[in-house]
Inverse folding.
């Protein structure tokens, strides 16, 4: 498990909980989409690979 994936999933779960309080099930689905977005956002946390 990469750091970015973990952070992304935690971010998505947090957003899902936040939205589900206000929007119900639809909000939780939104949060799930935020999880994939979060994984992309937090890619910078991974150890940088040398690109030549």
């Amino acid at each position: 498990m990469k750091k970015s994936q973990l952070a992304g999933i935690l971010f998505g779960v947090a957003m899902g909980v936040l939205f589900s309080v206000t929007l119900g099930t639809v909000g939780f689905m939104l949060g799930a989409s935020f999880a994939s977005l979060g994984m992309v956002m937090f890619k910078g946390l991974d150890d940088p690979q040398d690109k030549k």
